[in-house]
Backbone:
C-alpha cells in the first residue's frame, strides 16, 4: 500500500514537474520573443505621435479605430471586425478660470473642466469661493451658506496608500459628485483639487456625472494651485470667474475594434484588451495606449511563436471607457445575446509601467489555481496576485460570471500623470511596457492550456 502511494505520488510529481518545466520553457520563449522583437513600443509611438489623444466622438478616435484594425491584421489576427457602439460626444471647447487676487486683478488659474461637465455657455459666471476639505465638512453647510457660491472641494489625494490606485479610489467621489452636490445647495459651480499623487500645478480631468437635470460646471486645479488658493482663502474672501464652452453634443455611432485567432480545439473565448479612447489632453500614452499595444502584442506573440491556441484568443480595443464605458457595456451585451462562452478576460489599464502582478476577480477556486502558478511568474518579477479587482471594461463580463483580471503595474507614477497633458509617449519605458505584454501573454498561455 505504502509503495503504491509512493509510486503514484512519484508519477504525479513527474507529471506536475514535467508540465511545469514545459510551461517554464514556453514562458522563457514568450519573454525572449517580446523583449527582442516586440512591437508595442514602436506602435505606441505611432499611436501617440501620429494620432495623439483620442476622446471618443472625436475625429482622432475614428483614426485610432482604423489604426487598431490595421495593427490587428498586421499582428496576424484570423478575423478583425468593428463592433458598433453608440457613444456620447463631449466637447471641451474654450475654458478659463480666474480668481481676483488681493490687488484686485483677475488672474488665470491652470485648470481643466471635468469630463462630461456642462460649461457656462461661453458666459462669465462668478461668485465667492467657499472651501471644504471633505464631504463631511460640505454636508454641514446649509443651503444658505452655499447659495450663489463657488464650492472648492480641497480634498487631498492620500499619500498613505502604497498602491496609489487606492488613493485614487478614495478621492474619486469628489470628482464624480462635486457638481451635483454643489447644485443641490444652490452653488454656481464646483472646483476640485485634482486626483493627483503629484505636487505640481497640473490639473487632471476625468469623468464626472450628474444625478439631476440641474447641471452646473465642475473644474479641476492642480495640487500646488489648490494649496495656494487655500492659503489665500485663509486671510480673505476670494472671487472666482469661470467661462467655458464645454458640454455634451449628442451621441454618435462609433466602434470598438476586435481581432482574434480562432481556437484550434473549441470556440470558447479568452479576452485580452485595453481601451482605445483617451481623454482629450496629453497623448493617452499610459492611459491606455499602453494597454492597447500590449494586447495586440499578445496576439502577435502567439502567431510568431506558432503556439497552438486551444481556445479563441480575442483582443478587444474598447471604445469610450473614459466617459461612458459604452464599449465595455456593448461587448457584454453581445456576449450575452450570442451566448458566447468566455473562459477568462484580462485588461491592461493601469499604465505601461513595470508589471508587478495580476489582479484576479473570480471565485476562490480559480484564483487559487492561478496563484499556484506563481513560481512560473517569479523569474519575471511578477509576484503580486493578491488584488481582487479587474478592468472597468470587463465589469459586464464579470457580472455574467466570467473570471476577470487586470495587469498590475507599479503604480507609483501613474496618478502623477493620469488624465493630464503629461500622459505622453516619453513617459513610457520600452522594457517596462514590453514586460507587461510578456506577463499578459504568459497568463493567457496558461489559461488557454490549462482551463
Ligand atoms: Zn484608462
Residues:
Amino acid at each position: 500500500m505504502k509503495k503504491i502511494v509512493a509510486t503514484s505520488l512519484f508519477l504525479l510529481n513527474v507529471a506536475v514537474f514535467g508540465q511545469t518545466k514545459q510551461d517554464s520553457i514556453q514562458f522563457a520563449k514568450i519573454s525572449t520573443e517580446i523583449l527582442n522583437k516586440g512591437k508595442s513600443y514602436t506602435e505606441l509611438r505611432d499611436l501617440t505621435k501620429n494620432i495623439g489623444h483620442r476622446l471618443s466622438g472625436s475625429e482622432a478616435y475614428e483614426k485610432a479605430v482604423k489604426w487598431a484594425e490595421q495593427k490587428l491584421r498586421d499582428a496576424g489576427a484570423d478575423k478583425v471586425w468593428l463592433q458598433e457602439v453608440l457613444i456620447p460626444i463631449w466637447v471641451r471647447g474654450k475654458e478659463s478660470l480666474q480668481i481676483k487676487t488681493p490687488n484686485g486683478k483677475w488672474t488665470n488659474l491652470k485648470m481643466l473642466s471635468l469630463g462630461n461637465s456642462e460649461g457656462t455657455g461661453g458666459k462669465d459666471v462668478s461668485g465667492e469661493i467657499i472651501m471644504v476639505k471633505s464631504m463631511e465638512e460640505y454636508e454641514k453647510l446649509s443651503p444658505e451658506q452655499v447659495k450663489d457660491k463657488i464650492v472648492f472641494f480641497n480634498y487631498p489625494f492620500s499619500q498613505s496608500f502604497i498602491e496609489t490606485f487606492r488613493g485614487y479610489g478614495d478621492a474619486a467621489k469628489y470628482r464624480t459628485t462635486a457638481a451635483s452636490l454643489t447644485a443641490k445647495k444652490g452653488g454656481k459651480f464646483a472646483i476640485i483639487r485634482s486626483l493627483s499623487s503629484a505636487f505640481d500645478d497640473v490639473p487632471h480631468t476625468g469623468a464626472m456625472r450628474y444625478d439631476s437635470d440641474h447641471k452646473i460646471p465642475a473644474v479641476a486645479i492642480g495640487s500646488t494651485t489648490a494649496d495656494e488658493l487655500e492659503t489665500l482663502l485663509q486671510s480673505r474672501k476670494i472671487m472666482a470667474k469661470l467661462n467655458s464652452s464645454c458640454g455634451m453634443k449628442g451621441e454618435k455611432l462609433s466602434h470598438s475594434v476586435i481581432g482574434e485567432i480562432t481556437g484550434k480545439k473549441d470556440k470558447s473565448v479568452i479576452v485580452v484588451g485595453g481601451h482605445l479612447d483617451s481623454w482629450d489632453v496629453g497623448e493617452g500614452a499610459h492611459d491606455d495606449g499602453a494597454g492597447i499595444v500590449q494586447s495586440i502584442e499578445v496576439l502577435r506573440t502567439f502567431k510568431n511563436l506558432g503556439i497552438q491556441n486551444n481556445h479563441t484568443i480575442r483582443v478587444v480595443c474598447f471604445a469610450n471607457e473614459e466617459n461612458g464605458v459604452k464599449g465595455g457595456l456593448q461587448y457584454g451585451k453581445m456576449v450575452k445575446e450570442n451566448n458566447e462562452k468566455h473562459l477568462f478576460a484580462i485588461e491592461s489599464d493601469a499604465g505601461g509601467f513595470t508589471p508587478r502582478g495580476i489582479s484576479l476577480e473570480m471565485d476562490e477556486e480559480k484564483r487559487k489555481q492561478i496563484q499556484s502558478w506563481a513560481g512560473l511568474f517569479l523569474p519575471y518579477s511578477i509576484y503580486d496576485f493578491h488584488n481582487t479587482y479587474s478592468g472597468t471594461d470587463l465589469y459586464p463580463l464579470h457580472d455574467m460570471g466570467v473570471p476577470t483580471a487586470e495587469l498590475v503595474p507599479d503604480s507609483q507614477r501613474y496618478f502623477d500623470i493620469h488624465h493630464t497633458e503629461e500622459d505622453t509617449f516619453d513617459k513610457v519605458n520600452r522594457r517596462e511596457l514590453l514586460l507587461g505584454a510578456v506577463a499578459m501573454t504568459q497568463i493567457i498561455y496558461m489559461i488557454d492550456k490549462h482551463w
User: Anything to note?
Assistant: The chain is about 40% helix and 20% strand. The two ends are 33 Å apart (CA to CA).
